[in-house]
Design a protein that fits this description.
Number of domains: 2
Radius of gyration: 20 Å
Largest sheet: 6 strands, parallel
Number of strands: 14
CATH topology of the largest domain: Rossmann fold
CATH superfamily of the largest domain: HAD superfamily/HAD-like
Structural class: alpha/beta
Strand content: 25-35%
CATH class of the largest domain: Alpha Beta
Distance between the termini: 45 Å
Mean pLDDT: 87
Strand order of the largest sheet: 11-10-9-12-13-14
Low-confidence stretches: 1-9
Order of helices and strands: HEEEHEEEEEEHHEHEHEHEEH
Shape: globular
CATH architecture of the largest domain: 3-Layer(aba) Sandwich
Number of helices: 8
Length: 323
């Protein structure tokens, strides 16, 4: 990619977003959460309110650019008292200097999806929490970019265009993946509470448009994990995807010890290496590894031992969802 392209696009993007002034109220974003029926962690962020244009199939690039940069550029609210309501319980917390808050709770909750609500003196928000049934023994942990969402990570100019100049209604899903995930998780005793995690390296500011994409394209409901990127030491590693993914997958394995997981990713970045490390260190917990080949010349490069090419799996998938 030409050196001037990224700075030029970011300059135009910043100019496009600047007129979007912050409102007086609070906007509370709750990130998807999960628990084991006894404990759970709920995280969110308090930011200034801002109007976002509705997503449409015929939106132009400038409209998309303005909206997408609006997700990335926001004003955090620090030190805000927040009340989180879950399962009839009300829990108190406060946002940190970056606007984030976290609640660790010991609550007895039934398996399935639960609504979470959070309120401040100047705003409120809603989210979901998945309690995984102990009868469900098989889960999926899936990468997002170039695994279920066509992003073209290996072509940086195309990646930037896909990320900034298109919206959730216009982005392309990898054919067959939604059906494959649904069929795989249907083998569980309670598929409605199956442990499905979408592990994205995108910043948390983009979790809402990614969630929109997942829902629009018929993927099973799951817990979307995105990266906390801040200006202080609490930030997760911006470029070290290996450390970031290992940390979150190990956390999932620790919190759901009765579940074996299929790890799904692509070879555009470091998913094969990450998953190979996990296969070696947690052989009894990793049921399979599926890799989508997207790198130039990937077909000539062998996969790690015990890793499967997704193309072969998708060849046997009925692309139409079951009625």
């Amino acid at each position: 990619m030409k050196r001037w392209l990224a700075p030029a696009l970011l300059a135009v993007a910043a100019a496009a977003v600047l007129p979007l002034s912050a409102g007086e109220g609070d906007r509370i974003v709750l990130y998807p959460a999960y628990g084991d029926g006894d404990t759970c962690i709920v995280e969110g962020r308090v930011i200034a309110t801002r109007e976002y244009a509705e997503v449409g199939d015929d939106d132009g690039r400038l409209r998309n650019l303005r909206r997408n940069l609006g997700w990335l550029i926001n004003d955090e609210r620090k030190g805000v008292a927040v009340e989180v309501e879950l399962g009839g319980h009300r829990l108190q917390t406060r946002s940190d200097r970056e606007g984030y808050f976290r609640v660790d709770a010991r609550l007895a909750l039934l398996p399935g999806w639960h609504e979470v609500r959070a309120r401040s003196a100047a705003g409120e928000g809603a989210g979901t929490l998945l309690v995984v049934s102990r009868e469900n023994a098989l889960g999926l942990i899936s990468d997002v970019d170039d695994t279920i969402l066509v992003s073209e990570v290996t072509r940086k100019a195309r990646l930037l265009a896909n990320s900034l100049l298109a919206n959730a209604a216009q982005r392309e899903a990898v054919a067959g993946m939604a059906v494959l995930y649904a069929q795989t998780l249907a083998t569980n005793a309670d598929p409605s509470s199956a442990p499905l995690f979408y592990l994205s390296a995108s910043p948390r500011q983009l979790h809402e448009p990614i969630s929109d994409f997942v829902a629009r394209n018929g993927f099973p409901a799951g817990v979307l994990i995105t990266k906390r990127v801040t200006n202080d030491r609490s930030s997760e590693p911006l470029f070290d995807q290996f450390a970031y993914k290992i940390r979150h997958i190990e956390d999932i394995l620790a919190r759901l010890p009765w579940v074996r997981f299929i790890l799904v990713g692509d070879d555009g970045e470091r998913d094969p290496e990450v998953y190979e490390w996990l296969q070696r260190h947690y052989p009894e917990r990793i049921a399979a590894v599926w890799i989508r080949r997207v790198s130039p010349g990937a077909d000539d490069m062998p996969l790690h031992d015990a890793q499967q090419d997704l193309a072969a799996l998708l060849g046997g998938v009925d692309m139409e969802p079951a009625p």
